[in-house]
Design goal:
mainly alpha, globular
């Protein structure tokens, strides 16, 4: 069971890093806040915080930012966000939301 959890955690971190790379390789001003938020979640995951919970929360944040601010994303980014969502779909988020969903301060 512990090995399964570690493997899942590692897969999530890899997807997060791929997602960060997909945003950072294109210099669009609107991407900068998204990149910084993804880095915060990567740091939490690498510090053995609950990667699935933080990543699930990140997916909702990214989706809200993309829709509300009309940020353009490519197919790779969309696929990575969907993959991350799929990896974290069974996460209990009842205790996680203490800030508005579109506020990046929730990741500090």
């Amino acid at each position: 069971m512990l090995e399964t959890t570690i493997t899942k955690q590692n897969e999530i971190v890899k997807t997060l890093k791929d997602l960060y790379a997909s945003f950072s390789k294109v210099q669009i001003k609107a991407y900068f806040p998204l990149e910084q938020t993804i880095l915060k979640v990567i740091a939490k995951a690498e510090n053995h915080d609950d990667a699935a919970a933080w990543s699930n929360k990140l997916v909702m944040y990214l989706q809200s930012q993309i829709v509300l601010k009309q940020i353009p994303i490519n197919k790779e980014q969309d696929a990575l966000i969907n993959s991350l969502s799929e990896q974290c779909k069974n996460t209990n988020l009842n205790y996680v939301y203490l800030a508005p969903i579109d506020d990046s301060l929730q990741f500090d």
